[in-house]
Design a protein that fits this description.
Largest sheet: 2 strands, antiparallel
Shape: globular
Distance between the termini: 60 Å
Number of domains: 2
Helix content: 55-70%
């Protein structure tokens, strides 16, 4: 088994391009949504990301070569690995941005620092869950219906990923729609370009050219002081500050399910690799995935890593183990030298956003394609809380865009609800759904699957779980801040009682409903 084959170059372009787009998104969201400084982004977050990607890519390359040598084969393809797209958006919009707004509402001097520290804690929590999940992954998958897991991810993919980039595509249609057309041709139409040029590379290069022609590029001023050698540094003090902060428990309803989803998603991708002929041990593969995420948090990155979907595709193009090593080297170099600042300057996120939009579409479509057809209503049920959370986010963002939610205009209070009712918008329900919506989506979808299959006692168990989570304050419990709504971690009595009654309804139906 050679360390490098010629086809690894094609695999490298595909994986490196995917990771590069994730890094461009990280820089864009951190700077323009969270307001992080260049120093924080380029000297702490990106070097931390490099550590996590270096660990996983090198290990999975070594793992593939070791297994190939043991079996006397030369066609093992390393598991693809990189930053988790869904977690990236979830932690920015559902953890760090709310933490920043809450810190601002409390008059803290450095709300951006608070947001980063909370993001570190969320990343650490996700990594620890992934490590623990390596020992119980199969059990988790057995307990939770696939529709519940995939539809919850699909809700995030449709809203916080796809819709945001769809808006941006139509805001800059010459770049957005043309590159989207290329992505559709390549990934849905299975069109191959002459010379074996990767379709994603064609889309990004075309996007760069159109961006410069239409004035979207360059982005800002030419970087002056970003070049250098920014070696990863431990950030244990900041992690400890996050543990001691009043926000440390507020976002458990996001961290816990996202960690579980990362475990299940990686497990499914390992199974996908096995279906393509490459068997990988589940426990060690998931363990290293979790260790990569923990390492990210320890060295400054807020963004978990994962085993990527698409191993059969990389294997089919002939990539083996070298593409993973090349990706590790490339990503490390651009992250620790500040080179990414010049890439961000020359390559606007619009040039690569079609790839991210495609990822969101694929995740949402997968929820319907890989679940039993008669579970489709459960998939739809699992989508609704994510859509509700997006709607609540949009409503609050609109108010903030109109300069509400400042110290001069603290409009975020219960009086808003009556104003929304006049437009037949029941925002009390939307704000309640928003808190812990990932857990709510999973539960609603799971109990719907149980009802469809007439397993009413199991449906009652899921509803009871929702009641317990409500009374624990992990879902539906919200409080007003001057610029947002936030999880209050106090009992949500009304919803707790409602779910308990629903559980009784399911149990009693076994005895009261006429059977077919």
């Amino acid at each position: 088994m050679k360390w490098f084959v010629l086809e690894d170059i094609d695999g490298f372009f595909g994986l490196a391009l995917d990771n590069l787009v994730q890094l461009l998104v990280i820089v864009s969201l951190c700077k323009y949504v969270l307001g992080f400084s260049d120093g924080l982004v380029y000297q702490k977050i990106l070097p931390g990301s490099a550590v996590s990607l270096l660990i996983g890519n090198i290990y999975y390359a070594w793992q593939a070569r070791k297994l190939a040598m043991a079996q006397g084969r030369d066609d093992y393809c390393a598991l693809p690995y990189g930053i988790n797209t869904v977690s990236l958006f979830a932690y920015v919009f559902l953890v760090m941005l709310p933490a920043k707004l809450m810190a601002q509402s409390q008059g803290m001097e450095t709300p951006e620092l608070v947001a980063w520290q909370v993001g570190l804690l969320a990343c650490l929590g996700s990594g620890l869950i992934e490590i623990g999940g390596a020992f119980v992954a199969d059990k988790l998958r057995t307990i939770t219906p696939r529709a519940a897991l995939l539809s919850t991810l699909a809700g995030i993919a449709l809203t916080f990923i796809s819709l945001g980039f769809l808006f941006r595509s139509y805001a800059n249609p010459v770049v957005g729609l043309v590159t989207l057309a290329v992505i559709l041709l390549v990934y849905f139409g299975r069109v191959k370009f002459k010379g074996g040029i990767p379709g994603g590379l064609v889309a990004v290069v075309l996007g760069i050219l159109l961006s410069w022609m239409t004035g979207l590029a360059p982005v800002g001023d030419l970087p002056n002081n970003e070049l250098g050698l920014f070696m990863p540094q431990p950030v244990l003090a900041d992690l400890w500050a996050a543990v001691l902060s009043p926000f440390s428990l507020t976002y458990l309803s996001v961290i816990i399910p996202m960690g579980v989803f990362n475990v299940i998603g990686s497990l499914q991708n390992i199974e996908s690799a096995e279906a393509a002929g490459d068997h990988y041990p589940v426990q060690s593969s998931l363990m290293v995935n979790g260790l990569g995420t923990v390492a990210a948090s320890l060295f400054g990155s807020c963004f978990p890593t994962t085993i990527y979907i698409g191993h059969p595709g990389w294997k089919a193009m002939g990539a083996r183990v070298g593409y993973s090593i090349l990706n590790a080297i490339f990503i490390t170099l651009i992250c620790v030298t500040g080179t990414l600042a010049f890439i961000v300057w020359a390559v606007p996120i619009d040039a690569g956003m079609a790839i991210v939009l495609w990822i969101g579409i694929v995740i949402a479509a997968q929820a319907f394609q890989t679940t039993p057809q008669h579970h489709a209503p459960a998939v739809v049920m699992g989508l609704l809380p994510g859509i509700a959370a997006w709607g609540a986010f949009m409503a609050k963002s609109g108010l903030r865009a109109a300069d509400y939610g400042t110290q001069e205009m603290t409009a975020f209070s219960a009086s808003l609800l009556d104003n929304f009712k006049q437009a037949d918008l029941w925002m009390h329900g939307a704000f309640a759904l928003e808190q812990g919506f990932i857990l709510t989506a999973m539960i609603l979808s799971a109990l719907t699957v149980c009802v469809i299959e007439r397993r009413f006692v199991q449906a009652a168990c899921w509803s009871t779980a929702a009641s317990v989570l409500s009374l624990a304050g992990l879902i539906h419990s919200y409080q007003w801040t001057p610029a947002d709504t936030a999880l209050s971690l106090t009992p949500a009595w009304e919803w707790g009682m409602a779910y308990a009654v629903v559980a009784l309804v399911f149990v009693s139906s076994k005895y009261l409903v006429i059977k077919d």
